[in-house]
Amino acid sequence: MAADERQIIPLLEYDASPQAFIEPVDVRQPVDVPRACVLSWFHDGIERLVGRLDGRQVVENRWEDGPHPLFEVDMEGRRVGLVPMPVSGAAAGSLVEELIALGCRSFAACGGAGSLRPDVTLGHLVVVTSALRDEGLSHHYLPPGRVVDADPAAVATLEATLTEHGVPYVAGRTWTTDAFFRETPAKIAARRDEDCVTVDMEAASIAAVARFRDVRLAQLLYGGDDLSGAAWDHRSWRTQHEVRDNMLALAMNAALRMEA
């Protein structure tokens, strides 16, 4: 890229070349793993689920920040993977790259998010239909743009799963940001005006990776802490173990249905 073609902001210097200097297959070789995989930030929930279903670890996957192993469990005679995810879009997106290189192809992600609307109460589920790209990683996978739309087929599968199980939810956009401590009142108001229902740190990033690699991915969030009022309300959102365990079961079902 010539100097006069460069953008003021480096993140906008998108390179559409499909080949990178280091490819995921340079660090991860395909192995016998489930094609359907659940990505979750509920590490304790994954531990409970693996123990309850007699799951096993199939890939160690140890990073500098600790282990992010790929577990396998049996759900009605079918294999499904479970991966405890790292926080932040850069880390999460890179781990998804490695999982794709290993052989996973259909992903259902579940995590918590800050609520930007008062009707998204504690534990209420949100199906991500698009993500506002206020983070870094997605801009290396897709041309510059304000939002990334979710995979409509994967979203439809996730919504069908929730409907069939009688689980209420809302569908909408999430605001993905790198800066947890820079969610200012002005930005919160602006994102709400752009129809953002929640705020999170990974959704846009992993959606961009999935689109770039042409794999299925849907995302399910639940209303955690509340940013919709005059003051922040933590709502003890990390203690919602039953919500998290139910979400993992629903995500497993959806991931397997994507592979049907």
TrEMBL record:
InterPro entries, A to Z: Nucleoside_phosphorylase_d, Nucleoside_phosphorylase_sf
Enzyme class, spelled out: transferase
Organism encoding this protein: Luteipulveratus flavus
Protein name, UniProt field: Uridine phosphorylase
Reaction(s) the record says it catalyses: uridine + phosphate = alpha-D-ribose 1-phosphate + uracil
Membrane-spanning residues: none
Boundaries of every Nucleoside phosphorylase domain copy: 77-234
Enzyme nomenclature, EC number: 2.4.2.3
Domain of life: Bacteria
Pfam families: PNP_UDP_1
